[in-house]
Every structure is written in structure tokens, then in C-alpha cells.
Amino acid sequence: MVSVANQLNQTLNQQVLAILERCNHINHLKQLQSFLTTLGQSQTNFYAFKLVRFCTLKLSNLTYARFIFDHLTTPNTYLYTAMITAYASQPAHASSAFSLYRDMVRRGQPQPNQFIYPHVLKSCPDVLESRGTKMVHTQIVISGFEQYPVVETALVNSYSRSGNDIGIARKLFDEMSDRNVVSWTAMISGYTRVGDIKNAASLFESMPDRDVPAWNSVIAGCTQNGLFSDAISFFRRMGMEVSDNIRPNQVTLVCALSAIGHTGMLQLGKVIHGYVYRNGLDLDSFILNALIDMYGKCGSLKEARRVFDRNSKKRLTSWNSMINSFALHGQSENSICVFEEMMRCQDHNIRPDGVTFISLLNACTHGGLVEQGRAYFKLMTKTYRIEPQIEHYGCLVDLLGRAGRFEEALEVVKGMKIEPDEVVWGSLLNGCKIYGRTDFAEFAVKKLIEIDPNNGGYGIMLANIYGELGKWDEVRKVRKMLKDRNAYKTPGCSWIEVDKQVHQFHSLDKTHPRTEEIYDALEITSLYTAMVSAYASQPVHLSCTATWVGDITKAALLFEAMPDRDAAARKARRVSDRKSKKCLALWNSLTNSFARHGQCENAISVFEEIMQSEDCDITPHMVNIYQLVDCLFTQKKVEQGLAYFELITKTYWIEPGIEIYGFLIDLLMKIEPDDVVWGSLFDGC
Prior knowledge:
Elements: H1 2-22, H2 26-38, H3 45-57, H4 62-70, H5 77-88, H6 94-107, H7 117-127, H8 129-143, H9 149-160, H10 166-175, H11 181-193, H12 197-206, H13 212-224, H14 228-240, H15 250-263, H16 266-278, H17 285-297, H18 301-310, H19 316-328, H20 332-344, H21 354-367, H22 370-383, H23 390-402, H24 406-414, H25 422-435, H26 438-451, H27 456-468, H28 472-485, E1 493-498, E2 501-506, H29 515-533, H30 552-560, H31 565-577, H32 584-595, H33 600-612, H34 622-634, H35 638-651, H36 658-668, H37 675-684
Antiparallel strand pairs: 1-2
């Protein structure tokens, strides 16, 4: 009898498995469930497990899987594991995973095993943060599973996801008897989450074996924490270790492209694009979006648009990236055109979100489209019911501030439903700088100092504003406050790529091995500033040009008010003469300095020195002719001016642009040119 029963069970098992293999709809599953019920097998855990697994894995129907589970009188450990695993795999259901585990513990039966704890721990940080992890950790110790490698790794990962418990995670990691690549990667990811890239990199270098997730962890960590040059360095190292097991995947490429976009390393971006194409990854929507974003940030808008147009399955992120790329470079009309194109597309799943409107508002800001920007803000809130975030308010305030509408900008700030932050007040401050509104600027900077009192940059701004207003007592008070608080100022930072190597520079940085050469080159820029300083109301020396922030227009205006401009220009020449090796930029600057202010003889002298130079890289530039001819014509030396113009075009084969011909016509004509004159000019060109 027993053998007959076993044969019947085996036959039923085979039938159930065969039916499940052919199932592709929930209705088929329900029919199978009814069949099992008629056979009295609805409470059999083996069949219930098969049904639950089919629901969660093949149909992704957690609701019906839970329905089957809840109708079981005595579900076993495997059923609990199946349900908790399904819930934990989706962050939105993390609370269901934890509550189901808690019910299991309260009932006392069945007992959790080592396979259930990793999935429970995965859900803990999303539900109760470190408190949940500690509760489960206690149960693990009581049940005696703390020495299992899979449980140890899960504990390290769970604690590392809570920034306050990174120390506990490291302690558990150090105590592990058998560390595998998963536990190493979990610890590295924990450090990158809290921004501790130093320890993350140190741990990464100590890894005995590295896999792709380990590389991704450190590359993504550097990118997310703004260490873009480090991310690119790790990516290049990964490229040198490429093997059958180590090859960049989707995550690697997306993170690398993001870092490249921030550093502007377009050539490396093109290399990755080639890799994507050769390896058939050009259909991956995430990689395509990353390419659009990278090309956009690097200013290669045509290439960004080309990648965008080739993407047959555009997601919202694709549209957002393209809109933002144009907005980032001030091409407001193109940005708006892409948005309108998006609204016309037939895909009903494409609906603008908050990111879309941030890009649109930025586009309107750069294009000075105040009313259109306001209309988009209203469209976002009224039509699409999107709650404005701090970034949206910052964009709107920036839009109004750049247009000089400060009262309206303040009304927007007062009407905000959330507390304004540095983005909002910084946006208002930018507009104040443009229009010289020291009253609003003072108010905005004070608000910024309230938000971050230790940021020395804000204090320096306030001191400069008081200086412009002549409030020197207030300047002294602010500087004393900065000194008492030991306020900091984040140094400026820039990157440059030379021979496939990234060089990173900070303000006043002298750590680069070629510092002496770099500063020697920068001295050329300092000399140009010295030329401009010849027109300023007080001398600017080479040692302080880094702190001189006046612009050329202001310097020229100050020059007009100087009683002795000739002496100032001669001083500029003396500064130039002290430089043993002069570059073209220096010669151009010196020529223009004399020509712009009517010292034709000195300008001609410098210009002839350029023509007599033995350095093949030193040749006259059209800018020199523009200034020199203008100077000669102003002093009624027309023939001499035309002679120099002819010399530069015939001797140096420099083809003047249309603006130069227009300039000559404007100088030579006695009357205002009309449409006929300008039309003839354009026809000739």
C-alpha cells in the first residue's frame, strides 16, 4: 500500500510540475490550485511552496502569493523564506518582509534557518534602521547562526547601510573567519555610503580578489561623493585588468560616464561610447541616457542629440537629459523644443516630472524668458500637480533675480511652503551681483550665514558688500567674526586631462609635481592682468593678481578718469619687458593696451616687434589689426591704417571675418549705412 501511495504521489508531483511549466497566467494557476483542493492537497506545504514560488518569480504577483500563504494552517520554514525573500527583493515591500518574520518569531514555529536571515536583514534598514538590525542580530545570536558566512555578510551589509553603525559593521567584518568577495564589497559599499572614500579605497586595495561588483562599488562611491577624477582613475585601472571575469558592465559604464560628464573629459567619453557600440550595449536605455548626459555636460550637443535620436525606446530620463543638456549651455529655444516634442509623443507613459521642470526653468533663466518660466512653474503645479521642491523655487528665484525683479523674487521666497535654503538665497544673490543691488545682496548673504555660519565664503561676500557701501566698521566686524569662528572657505577646484591622465587643481595648490612650470605659464595670464591694471586707479602687482577680481570693462572706465594715462601705459610696457620669453597672448595684450587708448606710435612699435619675431609661433592676429586700424583711423591716419590692413591679409594670409569688413565700412563711411550697403557687403562675402 505504501509503495502504491508513493507512486501516486510521484505521479501527482510530476503532473503539478508539468502544469506549472506550461502556466503563463494567473488563471492557469488558480485552476491548478482548485485541482489540488479537490484532491485534498491544498494544505500540503510542498505544493503550496511550488505555487508561491511560481507566483513570486514568474508572475511577480505578491498579492496572490500572500493569499495562498495566509490560507495555510502550518506553513514551514521554506514557505516563510519564499515569502520574505520576495518581499525583501522589493524596497516598497520591506515592511511586509520584516512583519512576516516578526510573526514567525512570535508563533515560535517554524524556526528560522540561516537562509532566512539574510533576506530579513536586507529589509531592516528600510523599516527600523539600525534598531531593526540589532533586534534581528539578537535573534541570530540566540539561534546560533552568527558564525555562518552568509549571515555574517548580511549583518555587515545591514549595519553598513546605517551611517551611525559603520563602526559595528567594520568590527563584525574584522572578526569574520571567512571573508569572501561579497563581504569585502559590502564593507566597501558601507564606507562609500557615508562618504568615507579613504577607508573604502584602502579596503579595496587590500582585497585579495576583486570582481565586477567590487570595482563598481568603489567607482560608484567616488562618483556619488564628487571625487570624479578618482572614479575615472579606478575605471582606467579596471580597464587594464580586463579579463573574462572582469569586464565593465552597465553599472560601471553609467558611473564612469557620469564622472566624465562632470570633468569634461570628452575624448574618454568617446572611447567608452565606442566600447558600448562594439559590445552591443547601445540598446541599453540606462547607458544611452548616461551617454546623452555625458555629451551634454561636455558641450557636445550635436552628439548628444544624435544619441538621443537613435534611441528608439526613449524613457522620461532620456527626454530629461536632452532638455537639460540644451539648458545647461544656454540653448533655451532648443531645450523648450525638446520639451514640446516630448509632449507630442504618443507614449502615454511619458509624463513630465519634477526633474523635467527644473531643466525647463533653467532654460528660461539662461534665455531671460521670465513669463514663459512662470508659465511652466504654473503648468507644473496646476496641471501636473507636482509639488514644488527647493530646486524649483531656486530656479524661479534665479529667473526673477537675473531679470532684476527682486521684489517678485522675495514674494516667491515668502510664499514657499518649505524653508528656503542655500540654493534659494544663493540664486537671489546671483541676481544682486548682476544689477549691483547691495541692499538685497546684504539681506541674502545674512540669510546664508544664518544657514551655514562656518562658511567663510559667505562672510567674505558680506564684507565685500559692506566695503562697496563704505561701511568699514561693518567690514572689520565681519572679518573679526570669521576669525573668531575659524570659518572655512571651500577652495575652487578644476580638472584637466593631459595624455590620458587627469590633473586636479585647487586654489593656491602647489602639490603638483610640475608646479613651477604651471605657475610660470600662469604668469602670462598675470601679465595680461598687469596690462589691464595699467588702466586701473591703483597699481596691481604680479604677486596679487590672483586676488584681483575687477573686470576689463570696469578697468577701462577707471582708466578714462586717470590724470596720467601715459605713465600707466608705460608702466605696463615695463612689466612686459621684464618677461624674457613673450607669448602671442602677451604681445596681443600689449598691442591692444596701447591702441585702445590712442597711443598709435607705441602700438605700431609693438606690432612691428611681433612681425620681426623669430619665434614661428608669434604671428599677428586679426585682433591686433582691429585695434590698430581703429586707433589710426581715429587719429585720421586712414592711409596708414589701410596699409596695415592690406599687409596682414597679403603677407600673413589671414582672412578677415565679416565683422572686420563691417568695421572698416563703418569707419570709412561718412553717413549711417543703410540696407543696400549692408546687403552689398553680405553678397560680396
